[in-house]
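User: Let's play a game. I give you a shape written as tokens, and you guess the letters that built it. Ready? Here's round one.
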């Protein structure tokens, strides 16, 4: 797992910042959105909700590069790098997308990820461990999986889904904040500190629920990306690559990046709700079927 946790965390951070700024503006100017009725609140929630998700999308490639220490291969320095760039170019042409940036990040774990706001200006990066451990046909299958994510516009669709969820998170959090502020804290002034704290707590809790939905969508798209990788490089190669990933023994990526890659950790019980990728056994079985 590598891509979605980073996107979700960035999105939650942006929403929290926007909420604090809004509370300060309301306090300074004495304006409160709840007074405009639910219609005005819903419009505000949509503007801020989609704004948060689109900002997260715009930052996705830059954030991934910085957090993973990706070295972009502008001028290949070895035969392996030349092959890697050539393979990405060939697969991108097959998928009819623009040539992505190609990067390598230092990690013993076999992994790869693709991200970016536009299908013709994406980033595809692979770990040094993956390049060392996999055969070239297996690496091509992994690249095909990531290229399919880009071709399918998964990050854009994710941003739109997150925007809808953000809208309802902001809307319901402020409704809950207003109810608690008036009914429990007995504050008739609207917009006090009780409203702010209650809204922030409700927004955090509802944001977790929204994250479960995002992770569910992410799991569904992984099956589609596996199928796309199989179409581009052959089902046998895609299955071999996934089986090879099961033997990965390296250190996992930071949790906030675990939604970015093709390789997944293991989660049991309730943590399965927060898995951004299905278990590798399920993905292999789906391809064999």
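Assistant: Ready! My guess for every position:
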């Amino acid at each position: 797992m590598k891509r979605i946790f980073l996107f979700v965390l960035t999105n939650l951070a942006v929403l929290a910042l926007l909420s604090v700024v809004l509370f300060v503006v309301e306090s300074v100017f004495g304006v409160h959105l709840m007074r405009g009725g639910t219609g005005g609140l819903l419009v505000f929630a949509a503007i801020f909700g989609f704004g948060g998700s689109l900002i997260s999308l715009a930052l996705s490639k830059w954030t991934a590069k910085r957090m993973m220490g990706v070295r972009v291969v502008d001028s290949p320095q070895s035969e392996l790098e030349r092959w890697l760039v050539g393979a990405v170019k060939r697969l991108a042409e097959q998928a009819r997308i623009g040539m992505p940036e190609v990067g390598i990040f230092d990690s013993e774990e076999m992994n790869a990820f693709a991200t970016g706001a536009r299908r013709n200006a994406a980033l595809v990066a692979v770990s040094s461990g993956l390049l060392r451990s996999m055969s070239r046909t297996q690496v091509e299958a992994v690249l095909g999986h990531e290229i399919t994510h880009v071709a399918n516009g998964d990050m854009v669709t994710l941003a739109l889904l997150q925007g809808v969820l953000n809208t309802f998170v902001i809307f319901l959090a402020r409704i809950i904040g207003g109810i608690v502020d008036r009914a429990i804290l007995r504050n008739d002034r609207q917009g006090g500190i009780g409203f702010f704290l209650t809204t922030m707590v409700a927004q955090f809790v509802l944001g977790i629920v929204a994250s479960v939905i995002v992770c569910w969508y992410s799991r569904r798209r992984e099956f589609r990306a596996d199928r796309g990788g199989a179409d581009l490089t052959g089902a046998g190669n895609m299955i071999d690559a996934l089986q090879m990933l099961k033997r990965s023994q390296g250190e996992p990526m930071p949790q906030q990046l675990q939604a970015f890659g093709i390789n997944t950790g293991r989660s049991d019980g309730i943590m399965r709700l927060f898995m951004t990728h299905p278990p590798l056994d399920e993905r292999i079985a789906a391809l064999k079927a």
